[in-house]
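BACKBONE GEOMETRY TOKENS:
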Amino acid sequence: MPANPLSEYVNEVEAAFINLSSGYIERYEEECLTPERVNLRIRVRFPKGQMLEWNEAVIGEEGYVDHLAYRYHFQDKDNKVGF
């Protein structure tokens, strides 16, 4: 049976965040809308108060992963973006 590229992608993303050397996962959500589509919502906090928000809508079809939509947001401890 061929591997499921969507499951592989989600597992790789999860492993990358779990293996962070600094910071901690404040929120990790996988919303499986269909067997071919998942929404990821992840928030990470870092030691100096910075925050990373990672949101993606991803589908797996015909052996590959496609990103329907994404948003990445990074801010400092004072909630400022673009420092």
User: Anything to note?
Assistant: The longest strand covers residues 64-75. The chain has one helix and four strands. The domain at 5-75 is CATH 3.10.450 (Nuclear Transport Factor 2; Chain: A,).
